[in-house]
Each structure stands twice: as C-alpha cells, then as structure tokens.
Amino acid sequence: MTTVRSGAEAGAGVPESGAPSGSGGWRGDFAILSTASAVSQLGSMSVAAAGPLLALAMTRSPIAAGCVTAASVAPGLLFHVVAGVVVDRIDRRKVMLASQLVRIVSASVTCLCLLLLDDPVFFLITAALIDGSCAVFFETAEIAAVPDLVAEKSLNAAIGSNEAKLNASMFLGRPLGGVLLAINPVMPWLVDACTSLFPFITLLVRKRLLRRAAPGEAPGRPRPGEPARPRGDAGRDAADHALRPALALLARDSFSRAVLAVCVLANFFFQVIVLLQILLAQREGLPTYVVGVLLSCSGLGGLLGAVGSSYLLRLTGPSASLVLCAILWVPLVWEATAHRSPVIGLAAWGVCSVLGAHINVALRAHQAKAFPNELGRITGITRFISVGAVALGALSGGWIIDSVGIHGTAIVIRTIFAAVTAVLIALYFKEVCDGLVMLLGEFLRVLGFTAAWTGLVAVSLLCSAKRVGKGMIRIWRTPVTSIGAARSDEGGLAPLAESDPWHGGPVQIHQREDVGAVGAGGR
C-alpha cells in the first residue's frame, strides 16, 4: 500500500515528517501532551457517567436522565467533521486551549448551579453538551498533532498509547464518576474543572509544544526545497479546507475503505449484541452490578488491545492485522450470541474489544502516515462514520430483536460477520499469508527461546542436584572423630583419638560429665 510522503521527507537531507527536533522525541513532548490529555479525558468520562445518575436521582424521571445522556453523546455524532475542518485550519494548540478553557468555565458554572438552584437539570443537559463538544475538538486536535510530535517509525506505538489512554479513561472514569457522586453531587464537576485545568496550564506554559520548526526557522515557514504545507500557507485557497478533497482521499485509499466498512458493521451489530445480552441477563435475573462490571470489560479489553497493537503491527502489517482480527471475531461473536449465559456472552463481547482497539490503532497509524496534511479532516470523517454506526445500532437493536427474535438476530449477526471475513480474506489473501508466516516464525522463535531457557534451567538443576549428591556421599564416607577425652595421671587432657572409619554403624561419643563450657567448645 502506497504511503503519501510530505515534501520534507522527499527533500534530500531533510528529516522525515514528524521527526522530533529535540532529543526528547516521542518520550518528550508527546508524553507531556498524552499525560495531560489522559487526565482531561478521565474527568470528562466521570461527568458523562455522573450526569444521568444525578438527573435521575433529582427528578426520578428516566426522560431527564436520557436527555443528559443524549446531550453527552450527540457532539460525537454532530461535531467530528466540523472539528476536523477547524483543526486543519487553525493552530491546534489554540483549539486545545480554547476547548479546555470552555470546559473549565462550564464545570465551574455547573458547580454553582448545583449549589444554588433547586432544579438544575437544564444546566446538567447544557453542561453535558458543552463538555462533549469540547472533548470532540480536543481529541481531534490531539490525534492530528501526533505526526508533528513523533517520528514515523514510532507512530504505531504513539497511536497505540493514545488508544490505550482512551480505553483506560473509559474503564476508570465511569466508576470514578459514581464514586464522586456518592461523596457529593458537586464533586464530579469540581474534579472535571481540575482535570481540565491541568492540560490548559500545560499547553499555556509550553508554548512550543506543537511547533516543530527547526532552530532558526520561523514557525510554519517551509524549509528550502519543501513545498508549502496547506496548514502553514496563509494565502492558500479556502477550497483546500473543504471536505471534498479529504473524502476523495478516503475513497481512493483501499485500506481506509475496508476498515471503515468493517467498523460500520461491527459497531452497529456490537450494540445489538450488547442489547441482546442485557435482555438475557434480565430474563435470568442477573444482578445489575454484575452486568455493569461485565460491560466495563470492553474498556479493559480495549486497553489490552491497544497496548499490544504496536508489536503485532510490526509483525503482520495493517492489512493482515485487519483480516486476522476479523477471523478471530467470528468465534467470539458466535459465542456471544449462543444464548448460553449472559456472563459468557458479555465476556466474549469484551474480548472483541481487544481486537477492535487493534483495528483502531492500525487505521489511525495508516492515516497518519498516508495523509499527514489532511489528518484533521480525515479523523473527523472517520470518527463521524464510526460513531454514527454506534448510535444507529443502539437505536435499531431493539427493533431488530423484536422483528426477528433473539434466535433470528443471532443468525443474522453470525452470517454477516462470516461474510465480511470471507470478503476480507479474498481481498487481502497475499497479505494474510505473509502475516501468518511472520506470526508462525515469531511463534517458533519464542518457542525456541523458551525451550532453550527451559533446557538451560533443567541442566543447571541437574548439575546442582549432582553436586549435592556428591556432597552427601562425601559426608557419608568421611571418618568421624571421636570427642572422648581421657584425663592423664598428671591431670592434663590426653590427645583426641581418631576412630576407625564409619561404615554406617552407631557411633559412640565419649564425653566426661564434668566438662564445662570451655571443654564443650568455648576453648
């Protein structure tokens, strides 16, 4: 698959695009930005979970809770495309600063409303909408900024780190919101204001965090021999920022088309699977806290999948990884829709999140390398399509189950996943074979390494056992010195006599009863 390279990479003697200018590299500025973003997302997830619970507790109305939930989810569906255009047009650092400043103000106002007003549900809905919108702009700007902070060889690890951070915030943020809400109704939004303040101060203090110009160059000015980048040219045509060029790039890229098609179908039917398992859990009388714990397994699975994605992508490549993940999805989806137990079904769905996170990292890493100058718009379009499939699946799941029944829904889901896997194998058959060969070679290498170490440990143990055995035999055959002492007529001690070699019989040790501490060894 062809990777589009920037002019900086094509020029002779010019470092690759995204290569860090300092020695910190991917462990420097990127680590700072990633840590600040992780703290911000933790607060955002906590208020997203606490808002509906607080609205339900204050009004006893599921409609109010649903409105707060919809307000927190709607920005992900409505504003990703807009955020992509804005991120490609405006300085990304300014976009991040503005989004965090708005979040701080919104969380602070919400705290005051909760303290002063008797019915702050309207402000909860407004705060959820504002917080979700700011999170969309910040996340899009951060994803688009990764190639500016990280060298191309480290993109997979960096994007995998971002994906792991997102899943960790989902896994920890939702329980944190419930805990903070149990302490005090104001605590989730107070913590949200503090977690938004941390990245705001970080970006405010480190003014050159997202500027990678070489020493002596003005920020945004192209290097000699490098064509002007669309982001840095003040006189560029406004049509360059339209969505049509980005859509055309996505349409021409076969890997992006394949991943988006798989993600749309997977996200849609995963929501149906979740609803199916919740219905089964309700029928079997499974406690709600058990269902909540099982649903949180998706965040843990996504975290594990993102952590190992860089290593697997280095072995198999993005295309083979996509097909292998789809192949592994088939038995997991089959088990998740087998109606045996909702515990097993939700656990299988959580394992599917491991593979989904790996596909997300593969897509983002590919797009960061192929479309570095249009990454904001590409990310916005991609997120809009994937989040839209999630929302559509959540809305349509009940209708599908009601129309064809639980058993019919399971058959439909299994058939679609099997068909998608067959199509992907046909499209990327050569890549899959190469990936399987690489995985087999790595498996044999690890197996041989493990066998070598196991053999070395076994030989060491045998040698140690042999030495111990020889030592025991030597002790067994060593002559024993008698400790008997005879008092001579002159009153002195006679020399100790050495007994015959011991052949296993009883040994008599003669010792005078009047020998004191000195004679017993103090001498």
Characteristic terms for this protein:
disordered N terminus; globular; Growth Hormone, Chain: A; 523 residues; disordered C terminus; 3 domains; mainly alpha
Textual characterization of the structure:
- The protein has 523 residues and is mainly α.
- It has three domains: 16-210, MFS general substrate transporter like domains (Growth Hormone, Chain: A, Up-down Bundle), CATH 1.20.1250.20; 242-427, MFS general substrate transporter like domains (Growth Hormone, Chain: A), CATH 1.20.1250.20; 432-473.
- Helices cover 74% and strands 0% of the residues.
- It has helices at 7-10, 29-59, 62-78, 80-89, 92-116, 121-149, 155-183, 187-205, 243-252, 254-284, 288-295, 297-316, 318-336, 342-370, 375-427, 429-477, 518-522.
- Helix 5 (92-116) packs antiparallel against helix 6 (121-149) and helix 13 (318-336) crosses helix 15.
- The longest helix is centred in the last third of the chain and has 53 residues, at 375-427.
- The protein is globular, with a radius of gyration of 34 Å.
- Mean pLDDT is 75; it is low at 1-26, 212-241, 480-490 and 509-523.
Number of strands: 0
Question: Radius of gyration, Cα only, in angstroms?
Answer: 34 Å
Q: Could you name the CATH topology of the largest domain? A: Growth Hormone, Chain: A
Mean pLDDT rating: 75
CATH H-level homologous superfamily name of the largest domain:
MFS general substrate transporter like domains
Continuous helix count: 17
Q: Could you give the order of the helices and strands?
A: HHHHHHHHHHHHHHHHH
Pick out the low-confidence regions: 1-26, 212-241, 480-490, 509-523
CATH class of the largest domain: Mainly Alpha
What is the approximate shape? globular
Helix percent reads over 70%
CATH architecture annotation name of the largest domain:
Up-down Bundle
Calculate the terminal CA-CA distance, rounded to whole Å.
87 Å
Alpha-beta content class? mainly alpha
For the largest beta-sheet, the strand count, sense and barrel status come to:
none
Strand composition percent: under 5%
- How many domains make up the coordinates? 3
Organism: Actinomadura nitritigenes
Biased composition (Basic and acidic residues): 223-237
Keywords: Cell membrane, Membrane, Transmembrane, Transmembrane helix
Membrane topology: Multi-pass membrane protein
